[in-house]
Design brief:
This protein has about 325 residues and is an alpha+beta fold. The protein contains nine helices and ten strands. The structure holds (R)-mevalonate (MEV).
Length: about 325
């Protein structure tokens, strides 16, 4: 068998982005349909981590986005090699990635996870899940400034998770519906968005506490609704969370337009997913309505949409 291959998948946050950085729980799903494959070869000193433009659905010539996405994998791989006593043996890693970069779908964490798995495979090492999470998280801290760990956790998880203060628990899903993800086509900087939210929370501690308490309530309710399969209640929670994210300053007129279009087309609820200020919108729909909602999102300006049945998301 070919040595030196590693994979990881995208993720979508159902509820709890941003507030999770400040200690509340969050809920995330793996998106196995969008993945990244990393191929590691014995490297030249210094090593190269490379993302051929052709494999990315993003604007070639946007070096900031590529550089930011790649700083995480590089740091994660370097830390892995340091721990294995292989400093100086850095591998060349090439990434083939279906996940659009900087769209809130976890591309930087997934690239880091795939890269570490590929380098481990090349050197015949096994990495236990806790160590892999730590290594990806090292990269995320560099790529995002201060990362909660939800992206690192979700891109490595086999099923839906509830994430809280650094640990993930597998969620019980009794929901028969569809998630429709719509790309605004606008790259959003997680680091920038997280810093902006922090400034807003610091400015008004009383409304900050209110926002975090509200987030906590919405997520507790949603954990129960996911298990009983109450899609209508989940849709309402998504809309409430979208309002909260807008108050925190990470929605945009484009995101608002896509949310409104999804609702008009019959979605239970919709919101931004990930860091916002661009990125993707996530809608929850009845399975039979997914196509209509997806078409409405494209008419409203989404550059791409993906549909994921919740039934296919097995528990972690
Ligand atoms: C980004 O996918 C999620 C944020 O909450 C940042 C983080 O948790 O590290 C915005």
């Amino acid at each position: 068998p070919v040595r030196g291959v590693g994979r990881a998948h995208a993720k979508a946050i159902l509820l709890g982005e941003h507030t999770v950085v400040h200690g509340t729980p969050a809920i995330a799903f793996p998106l196995p349909t969008l993945s990244v494959r990393a191929i590691a070869r014995p490297g030249t000193p210094g090593g190269v981590i490379e993302v051929p433009d052709g494999h990315f659905g993003f604007v070639a010539g946007d070096p900031d986005v590529a550089a930011n996405t790649l700083s995480g994998p590089r740091v994660a791989v370097e830390e892995a090699l340091r721990r294995w006593g292989l400093t100086g043996h850095i591998a060349d890693v090439v990434m083939e990635c279906d996940i659009p970069l900087a769209r809130g779908l976890g591309s930087s964490a997934a690239c880091a996870g795939a890269a570490v798995r590929a380098v481990a495979d090349l050197h015949g090492r096994t990495v236990d899940p806790a160590t892999l999470y730590e290594l990806v998280q090292c990269g995320e801290q560099v790529a995002h400034g201060r990362a909660s760990g939800i992206d690192a956790s979700a891109v490595l998880a086999a099923g839906p998770i509830r994430f809280h203060e650094g640990s993930a628990t597998a969620l019980d899903i009794g929901l028969d519906a569809a998630l429709v993800i719509a790309d605004t086509g606008v790259p959003g900087s997680t680091q920038h968005a997280v810093a902006g939210v922090r400034r807003n929370l610091d400015r008004d501690p009383r409304s900050a506490r209110r926002a975090l308490t509200r987030a906590d309530e919405l997520i507790s309710g949603a954990v129960a609704d996911l298990s009983t399969g109450d899609a209508a209640a989940l849709g309402r929670a998504m809309l409430d969370f979208q309002d909260l994210l807008a108050e925190l300053g990470v929605s945009t007129p484009h995101i608002d337009t896509l949310v409104a279009a999804a609702l008009e087309a019959g979605a239970y609820g919709a919101k931004l997913t990930g860091a916002g200020l661009g990125g993707c919108v996530l809608a929850l729909t009845e399975t039979g309505d997914a196509r209509t909602v997806s078409a409405a999102l494209r008419r409203a300006g989404a550059v791409q949409t993906w549909t994921v049945p919740t039934r296919g998301l097995r528990s972690g």
